[in-house]
Amino acid sequence: MHEAWPAAEQDPRALRRAHEAFIRGGRLAGAAGGARRLPPVRRLVADSWRRSARARISPDGAACVELADEELTRHREEHPLSAAMPVIRELMGAYARDGEHLLAVCDAAGRMLWVEGHPGTLRRARAMNFVAGARWSESVAGTNAPGTAIAVDRPVQVFGAEHFRRPVHAWTCAAAPVHDPHSGRLLGAVDITGGDRLAHPHSLAFVQAVARAAESQLALLAPEPSLERLRLTALGRDEALLTVAGRRLRLSRRHSEILVLLAHRPEGVRGDELITLLYEDESVTPVTLRAELSRLRGLLGAELLRSRPYRLAAPVDADFATVERRLGSGALSAAMRAYAGPLLPGSRAPGVVRLRARLADGLRAALVDRGDPGLLADWTYSAWGEDDVELWRASSKVAPAERLPAVLARLNALDAELSADATGLQRPGDHPGR
């Protein structure tokens, strides 16, 4: 749900004071005065600041450039949003140049694919690494319109000191997410960035309209495939289940990892990147990967598994993606209902390990923020949450009186176990390597 008052109605000085107070002490207080005074920080921004602080983002840092030269060119060419760039440029290009603004398009990881516009503004933006190839996801760059739009999967406008990082306080930006028109999957975001003149509701409406136009263009260029949707179940189990054309297939562990990674990256993954995501051993050769993919193609059928880049030809309904979507939209109860456990818990594939940790950490952070006794109990009394000290501690602060003794007893037992581990003592029944 959008907040009733836009960025343009805020007092820049009050925002700067609120930002400094939060950076120094983590405090967010409403403005003093009459009932008609607006609080200095919108809820959307306050929530984003808290996520930025939990991610330990430096308020004085700069974005990192992750893609350059040939790698950036290849990623652009392979990304689905490349097909929408002619429409985006037609709608935004002249507006950005004439208004001394920038148009930017990023992928779903917050990496800038294109940053274009007024030459002078481009030069100023380079000072904070707002350039193609830099990563501006909220989790690494703090509160900013494209990064936060991706994080919450909705249009966002960020004004001045609402940005978490001080070097970005001179800027205003508005961004809207762009989705695959058929699967609904988040592809990235389109953004307009510039000075104070963009701090107006029209800027947000404009960028939303551009995002919808981009999605319409993608729908025209790539009609919905006739192949039946795939269903992938990978939470709480080491061997995923795949339902395709009425068949229910139990996949091997390696094939489970491949399907999870391809479901997460519907635009496709290059062979060398897939090796990095799958194998801990850096000496694994492309021949090994091709053999695995050949066996998987034999199981699924050649029409479903394609190459250059490796991708699935049919849309996938993955249980872990459902949890991500619900969590991103703030539907925490629904996300918890869909969460059947860690993603492929026995997998050590680097790409799966990162996805598993990101999903669990996102749920845990949301549970702590919400402070709902029932949802915290659902986590702490689960097989995967029974040893989660942080969540037991959060539960102890909100548990009803009748449950509090049991919660405190479990928390004390976990604290004792941690103390014993820290002193090198081995408890009865412990086994090496536990």
3D architecture notes:
By secondary structure, the chain is of the alpha+beta class. Helix content is 46%, strand content 13%. It has 17 helices and 13 strands. It has helices spanning 12-25, 43-54, 69-78, 85-98, 119-126, 138-141, 145-152, 201-221, 253-264, 271-278, 286-300, 319-328, 332-338, 350-370, 373-380, 389-398, 404-422, and strands at residues 64-65, 102-107, 112-117, 134-135, 156-159, 172-179, 186-194, 230-233, 241-244, 247-250, 305-306, 311-312, 316-318. It has a five-stranded antiparallel sheet, with helices on both faces. A four-stranded mixed sheet has the order 10-9-8-13. A two-stranded antiparallel sheet has the order 1-4.
SSE layout and pairing:
Blueprint: H1 12-25, H2 43-54, E1 64-65, H3 69-78, H4 85-98, E2 102-107, E3 112-117, H5 119-126, E4 134-135, H6 138-141, H7 145-152, E5 156-159, E6 172-179, E7 186-194, H8 201-221, E8 230-233, E9 241-244, E10 247-250, H9 253-264, H10 271-278, H11 286-300, E11 305-306, E12 311-312, E13 316-318, H12 319-328, H13 332-338, H14 350-370, H15 373-380, H16 389-398, H17 404-422
Parallel strand pairs: 8-13
Antiparallel strand pairs: 1-4, 2-3, 2-7, 5-6, 6-7, 8-9, 9-10, 11-12
Q: Provide the number of structural domains.
A: 3
* H/E element sequence: HHEHHEEHEHHEEEHEEEHHHEEEHHHHHH
Question: Please, how many helices?
Answer: 17
CATH superfamily of the largest domain: GAF domain
Q: Which structural class fits the helix and strand makeup?
A: alpha+beta
Rounded to the nearest angstrom, the distance between the terminal CA atoms is 45 Å
Low-confidence stretches: 1-6, 30-38, 426-434
| Average residue-wise pLDDT | 87
As laid out across the biggest beta sheet, the strand order is 3-2-7-6-5
Main pleated-sheet profile? 5 strands, antiparallel
The CATH topology of the largest domain is given as Beta-Lactamase
Keywords: DNA-binding, Transcription, Transcription regulation
Domain OmpR/PhoB-type: 246-312
Pfam families: GAF
InterPro entries: GAF (IPR003018), GAF-like_dom_sf (IPR029016), OmpR/PhoB-type_DNA-bd (IPR001867), WH-like_DNA-bd_sf (IPR036388)
